[in-house]
Write a structure and sequence with these properties.
Blueprint lengths: L1 E2 L5 E6 L9 H6 L4 E2 L22 E13 L2 E12 L9 E6 L7 E9 L2 E4 L7 E4 L8 E2 L3 E6 L8 E9 L10 E6 L6 E9 L6 E4 L1 H4 L3 E3 L2 E7 L19 E5 L4 H15 L7 H12 L3 H15 L1 E2 L1 E2 L11 H7 L1 E2 L1 H14 L3 E7 L20 E8 L2 E5 L19 E4 L8 E2 L10 E8 L8 E10 H11 L4 H12 L4 E12 L4 E10 L4 E4 L2 E5 L23 E2 L4 E9 L9 E3 L3 E5 L2 E10 L2 E10 L3 E2 L1 H8 L11 E5 L31 H7 L1
Parallel strand pairs: 3-7, 4-14, 10-20, 19-21, 27-34
Antiparallel strand pairs: 1-2, 2-13, 4-5, 5-12, 6-11, 7-8, 7-12, 9-11, 13-18, 14-17, 15-18, 16-17, 22-23, 22-25, 23-24, 25-26, 27-28, 28-30, 29-30, 31-32, 32-40, 33-39, 34-38, 35-40, 36-37, 37-38
Helix pairs in contact: 4-7, 5-7, 6-7
């Protein structure tokens, strides 16, 4: 969760519940806001004087974000006092507190206005209104959170608003093990900031700080505090991998290691995957086995059953945040989150004798450097299944569309994952490999055989893989063909497209690709170069020069630079006007350039009355060292960023189009195949 009085200082906390016992009155009051004193463990900051000529909408005189660990779990204190300087800061009077009622009610300590020596107690005349908050219902999320809102009346420019409250954070699945982090944002507004962690005797967690926080730490026997006045912006090193961008962060954890996390989480999935004696899932497993003689066929069928017959709904109600729903329960209600779908799939595979395990992963790409973090289960945001079939590991994700079957690689390029096992498993690194096939293939066939003036018949095809391909599948699958055709006509005609005659879409499960083909006519914009000469820039034929890699002088110059994984391919074929000859045509040069860990490739060929062009780009290294970056910076000036021009001259060309090897026409090969020639022969032979 995130709790903050503004955007300047944030607190991110992950926790488990120490005690499951709560009194009846606590349950009754959990849906209301309580009023009470500040806890004894809180030491609030003294307000910082407002400087003369303070700018901005408001000045933060103090903000305290404090966490305390006791036998009942963690508590989160938030307190701030802010001077209103401009009218647009009056919205700070709209106070909202969000909490999980399973953890107990929040306790508000004070809401006051300071005005010209007068102190106004807002709580004497205003009350909180409690709302049931399912603000992400459209995204299929049920989290059970409550929100209390209070609108401070008669708040004026020049007033100071003070707010303080405490909430308890509990998850009833991890026993007495807690983990979390506190951090100061990268660009805080001027003011006084205080973050801190304290604990009861015997509850001290493991601590880890970034170097900038180590310098600020004020440590005592049962607490660590960090105080900052007017903190400077913390600029992460430009273009560095994510693990180098952790700044002003304090981690804490009760887990000894990642094996302990694995061992603690594993029983949650093992217990909920057990089927009752009369479970209908046993019959489903028998049906799948009868229809599919091989383990792979059975695993695929079980996965598709979970994907198709159980809709995805995130469930975080009460014990649902980390504890999965049972397999029988999920099958009965036919909805569940990633945990529920994983449990259901584990139950089916177990019933069929297929070895499988749950694996925690991070879908947001924040797992770079996870091995350097303190262990905690909420460093992950997703769970899926890894099954072993014929000695090979396959990844199965029940939350993906039913066209996504078992794969030897997960759909998301994870860096670190955590298998869950009864004996405990260590954090596991997933090595990155450069892509064997493009994520995107875009082919364009331009039939200009009727001449330069007549519209050209065009067939444009896009082959999209990975998560983007699955997203397109989810977007297009429900749309009837006539509606799809009409939508493309409405959006395309009037631009380059003169007509859209047909739109065909399908998802190729064997190729794991979404395939979209649009057919129609273009008005080709041949450029008149004078004296009977013409030219045309082929779609997808050029590259922008790569960006120079460098950092500000106050940043570490020796850190590596990051390249997001990518592999794309553009293939264009132009069927030439029938009244022209091959010797009248030429093109821009091709090239095969390797810079900044990336391969830039372009090639042309002229054969059978058609010019063929392929332009490919692939990341060969996701990280390049600083020395290589500096060397390649000097090469940028020589980079050929010309568009993929072809040229016609009625008098003939001095330099014909070179016959580059392995440059097929768009209609020569299946572009959904694994071995499409989107890079040079040498690059494909060297790197695969």
């Amino acid at each position: 969760m995130t709790a903050s009085g503004g955007n300047e200082l944030r607190f991110l906390y992950f926790s488990g519940l120490v005690s499951l016992l709560m009194s009846g009155s606590a349950f009754a009051d959990a849906g209301q806001v309580a009023i009470g004193p500040v806890p004894q463990w809180v030491t609030a900051s003294d307000p910082m004087p407002v400087p003369a000529g303070a700018g901005g909408a408001a000045f933060l005189r103090r903000q305290d974000v404090l966490v305390h660990l006791d036998e009942q779990g963690p508590q989160d204190y938030m307190g701030y006092r802010v001077r209103i300087l401009q009218p647009n800061a009056l919205e700070l009077g709209n106070i909202a507190i969000t909490w999980n009622p399973a953890a107990g009610a929040p306790v508000v300590h004070a809401i006051r206005i300071y005005r010209e020596g007068e102190v106004i107690d807002v709580l004497k005349t205003a009350n909180f209104e409690v709302l049931r908050r399912e603000d992400q219902l459209e995204a299929a999320r049920l989290d059970g959170m409550l929100t209390a809102v209070l609108r401070v009346g008669d708040l004026r420019v020049g007033d100071e608003l003070e707010v303080s409250y405490t909430t308890r954070i509990k998850d009833p699945t991890l026993g007495n093990l807690d983990s979390g982090s506190l951090f100061v944002g990268a660009s805080p507004s001027p003011g006084r900031y205080h973050i801190g962690l304290s604990w009861d005797e015997g509850a001290k967690p493991n601590l880890k700080m970034t170097p900038d926080m180590t310098l600020l730490a004020q440590t005592s026997e049962r607490a660590v505090d960090f105080r900052l006045d007017n903190p400077r912006p913390a600029n992460p090193p430009k273009d560095a991998p994510l693990r180098f961008q952790w700044q002003r962060i304090v981690e804490f954890s009760d887990f000894a290691d990642w094996t302990t996390v694995s061992q603690r989480m594993a029983p949650l999935f093992a217990e909920t995957a057990r089927l009752s004696a009369n479970s209908p899932l046993k019959q489903e497993a028998r049906r799948i086995m009868a229809a599919n003689p091989t383990p792979m066929g059975r695993a695929s069928a079980a996965l598709k059953l979970v994907q198709q017959n159980v809709r995805y709904v995130y469930v975080g109600l009460d014990r649902g945040n980390l504890t999965p729903a049972g397999a029988d329960e999920t099958w009965q209600r036919r909805y569940g989150d990633c945990k529920a779908k994983t449990v259901l799939l584990l139950a089916l595979l177990g019933e069929m004798g297929i070895e499988a395990e749950p694996v925690l992963v991070n879908n947001n790409g924040f797992d770079d450097g996870l091995d350097q973090r303190l262990p905690g289960p909420r460093m992950f945001d997703h769970v899926l299944v890894r099954a072993r079939i014929g000695g090979v590991a396959y990844w199965l994700d029940g939350t993906l569309p039913a066209v996504a079957g078992p794969g030897t690689e997960p759909a998301v390029p994870y860096r670190w994952v955590l298998p869950l096992s009864a004996k405990g498993s260590a954090l596991e690194h997933i090595p990155w490999h450069q892509a064997k096939r493009p994520d995107l293939v875009s082919t364009t066939e331009i039939d200009a055989r009727q001449g330069f003036v007549q519209p050209a018949h065009v067939v444009s095809t896009m082959v999209l893989r990975g998560i983007k391909g699955l997203q397109q599948q989810m977007q297009f699958a429900p749309v009837p063909p006539d509606q799809l055709l009409n939508a493309f006509r409405q959006n395309l005609v009037g631009g380059q497209w003169q007509t859209v005659e047909d739109v065909q879409w399908h998802y190729d499960e064997a190729a794991q690709a979404s395939v979209l083909t649009v057919t129609g006519t273009w008005k080709i914009d041949w450029e008149d170069d004078g004296k009977g000469a013409r030219s045309l820039a082929l779609p997808g034929g050029g590259f922008s020069p790569p960006d120079r890699r460098g950092r500000a002088s106050d940043q570490n110059q020796d850190l590596p630079y990051y390249n997001p994984p990518s592999y794309n391919c553009y293939a264009t074929t132009v069927r030439l006007p029938l009244d022209t000859r091959s010797r009248q045509w030429s093109s821009k040069p091709g090239y095969d350039v390797h810079m900044f860990g990336q391969n830039y490739y372009r090639a042309f060929a002229l054969r059978d009355g058609a010019i063929r062009m392929i332009r490919g780009f692939r990341v060969e290294q996701t990280e390049i060292d600083a020395a290589t970056a500096r060397k390649d910076n000097d090469r940028i000036a020589g980079f050929d960023n010309s568009l993929g021009y072809i040229f016609f001259n009625s008098q003939g060309q001095a330099t014909p189009i070179p016959a580059a090897p392995n440059v097929p026409a768009t209609y020569d090969i299946d572009w959904t195949a694994d071995n499409v020639p989107c890079l040079s022969v040498a690059a494909l032979e060297k790197n695969g």
